[in-house]
Amino acid sequence: MHSKIELFQFPGSHFNEKARWGLDWKRVPHDRTSLMPGPHMRTMRKLTGATETPAIVDDGEVITGSTAILEHLERRFPESPLFPEVPAERERALSIVRSWDAEVGPAVRLAKFFEVMEAAYAVGTFCQGQSALAKGLYRATFPVVGAIMKRQMALTAENAAAARETTRQAFELVAKEPGAQGYLVGDRFTVADLTCASLLMPCLSLTEWGGPEDADTEKNRAWLARWHDHPGADWVREIYRRHRKA
Ligand SMILES: N[C@@H](CCC(=O)N[C@@H](CS)C(=O)NCC(=O)O)C(=O)O
Questions:
Q1: In terms of residue numbers, what domain contains 21?
Q2: Is the C-beta atom of 195 inside 6 A of ligand 1?
Q3: Are residues 65 and 105 in the same domain?
Q4: Each residue of 178-193: pLDDT tens digit?
Q5: b/e per residue, 216-244, with b = 16+ CB within 10 A?
Q6: pTM of the predicted protein model
């Protein structure tokens, strides 16, 4: 008898969204522990030896990293497959996933955080589900946490401009690449669609279709408006509409 899977997550994060989506898509019963950036380090180090989220614990086994989690879920719960069976399609899907994990995900985060990061955004997005006390403490310590984030993620104007360009190219790709059925690889929903839609999620408002909550600040509204009308945004919304909420 397996114990229930536990997900350790940041509720607003796009890499974490990949893991949540995989769990939801395969209808895997699980518990979620939501952490706040900063205080998360202690919990994650104890659990995995490193600080990154997401991680799951499945019957005592700890799996870290969004794609490793999706691969683990595929092995454990083969129903509603996410990975194509045809080797060439599988390889193509994995190559999209690897390059988006390495480049697009970090770029979207950097570009967005450079534009929207301030105490109100951090509290609204990072402290979802936390107590009023935790939120108050987070707001009070934000100058320190924010400065560490800025340094660790190298949030400079120059890096943000390059990251915006990577984000724009990612939107171009999902506007042009999908086949007649609307999918990136083959004719059904795969890990490639899940990954690309999740990693562009921070650019769009997707709560209506099961995306996470995001702080409603003026800077975030301006950031979301930047991408709203891009043809690639229609693809992301459509993938969410078809496959996220269910
Ligand atoms: N390649 C990793 C990236 C995960 C990642 O960048 N996680 C971020 C949140 S979006 C994180 O936990 N950052 C805090 C830290 O590294 O301490 C994955 O696919 O899971």
A1: 5-76
A2: no
A3: no
A4: 999 999 999 999 999 9
A5: ebeebeebbebbeebebbebbbebbeebb
A6: 0.97
